[in-house]
Amino acid sequence: MQKPGNWGDFTNILCIRPDNLGDVLMTGPAIRALKNGKKDRKITLLTSSSGSGIARYIPGIDQVIEFDLPWYKHDLRAGAAMINDLTEQLKDHRFDAAVIFTVYSQSPLPTAMLCYQAGIPRVAACCRENPYGLISDWIPDEEPFYQIKHEVTRQLDLVKSLGGTVPAEEHLSLDIPPGTQEKILEKLEKLRVNIQDPWLMVHPGVSEDKRQYPPGLLTAAASMICKELGYRVLITGTAPEKTLAAAMADQIDGKAISLAGMLNLEELIGLTALSPLLIANNTGPVHIAAALGTPVIVLYALTNPQHTPWKVMHRLLPFDVPPEKRSKNIIIRFANSLSFTSPVGMPGPGDIFRAATLLLSRHRKPEPAREFFNPPPFSGQPSP
What we know:
By secondary structure, the protein is α/β, with parallel strands linked by helices. The chain folds into two domains: 7-161, Glycogen Phosphorylase B (Rossmann fold, 3-Layer(aba) Sandwich); 180-360, Rossmann fold, CATH 3.40.50. The chain has helices at 21-35, 49-55, 80-93, 109-117, 151-161, 180-190, 215-229, 242-250, 265-274, 284-292, 330-339, 349-360, and strands at residues 12-16, 42-47, 63-66, 97-100, 122-127, 137-140, 199-203, 232-235, 256-258, 278-281, 296-301, 314-319. The strands form two sheets. It has a six-stranded parallel sheet with strand order 3-2-1-4-5-6, with helices on both faces. A six-stranded parallel sheet has the order 9-8-7-10-11-12, with helices on both faces. β1, α1 and β2 form a beta-alpha-beta unit.
């Protein structure tokens, strides 16, 4: 059967990535490649309520449709009537084509059915099963059985398969609105934070409990950095993380201040752009830092190998996830059985301190994202 149209000619494309902030950011290079594939091409992103905020700062996205699809993890479930309304909304846009971005543990088929019902003539996606008429441009998904790619690489490869040209600079990117840094500087001044003095960011929160590095160990590391290096620590977080951030600040002897719940997303982006270093769990702010070129130390729970910091100076400090908190998804379990065959233990405050000392002594420069398999146990030194 002949497929309608040619990808190089399409001017109205729907990109679909209904996941979290970090996933949307890591899809940014692929979206940008699609956008740059044709002059006057319009890109609309369908994403979740947790991803829509960051999408507005990603170059190449012209419009955002926010909807929490029920086949992704969300607090609230959309009913059938809401799905029908979304289908009609997509019909009204008269898209030429849609690209469904996933990771290997996610099926594109429910989303492909949504596109089918919306009458979108061309749909591209990676899929393990043969989708027949649901996906016109089917890329058989080899992950994780034959290979495991970084999420940025996976999404770029999907666009390449459609004839897209991927630029040499495959970096994450964020557009910082004019006046953003002035706003954050004014807020810091009111809090009596002088950014001319040495300071750095710590983000102790996570989107999933299984990725949580022990807050007590992180507090001890931050205290060591303050005492030995003379730095002040700015602790960021969401409003629900205020208690966690305040407890950390109270234990760091007047050298820390909690900003949890005090910054909107634009201000968090502005602060991260100014910071010489971010220390965080594997969560959204790590990918914001990567997009801004801010060096980062990632306390990396071994939940999957796809989300290491992309092309930014970083140090990865992995730790094991307790068996009771590991995913029940069989595909994830299989991938992790290949990637993480040896226990790595838990990095201590000294490991974080040494990594911070190293990164703070260097100028910013890009690093390749490191996909890691069987990371070695800690020897008391951060991995090179």
